Amino acid sequence: RKEVEQDPGPFNVPEGATVAFNCTYSNSASQSFFWYRQDCRKEPKLLMSVYSSGNEDGRFTAQLNRASQYISLLIRDSKLSDSATYLCAVNRAARNTPLVFGKGTRLSVIA
Amino acid sequence: EAGVVQSPRYKIIEKKQPVAFWCNPISGHNTLYWYRQNLGQGPELLIRYENEEAVDDSQLPKDRFSAERLKGVDSTLKIQPAELGDSAVYLCASSLIVDEQFFGPGTRLTVL
Fold first, then answer.
1. I need a labelling partner for A15 at 20 to 30 A (CA). Which of A1, A6, A93, B85 fits?
2. What are phi and psi of B95, to 5 degrees?
3. What pLDDT does A95 receive?
């Protein structure tokens, strides 16, 4: 099993739709979880940290399920500008250990 | 606040040639990372520095790759000699808060 796995997509959704991505991780000792957004030919940009209690930032909601070892990202009311690749990142074990990135899930929001 | 700066942005070289990449992290960030990203993949860590000390370089191919972070600020990553398979985007990132990393624009390397 890979350390971090994501469905590569692409997810093609109409504007206004709600879309959700999952990311599974293999190391139960992982402590830190993040979602990054990467536009074509650009660097990854930190979108959200994922906390145990879940967190919300506008149209974006991130959740952590430790029992099943996955994190999720929910995007409500999708905009054309949300089209990008979404990367999840998980640290290997305790804090201050390197992040392992998934391959990313590509989202295309269509007018 | 200025972000992570990298240069050059693009580099095309022939195989067996040397190449070097430079990174200036966000001011005050003591942790610096070099990643390699291949097309369709996520970034893969090559080396991580805490100040000037390399604390994780297990993924760095040491036969041809080297890195340094003198004075604990700027860093350079070198490949000598480059191989065709080294074509990728080389990303530098820095962090202050543990694990929250901010990436530079990357250097896109093409080895012919």
1. A6
2. -150, 150
3. 60
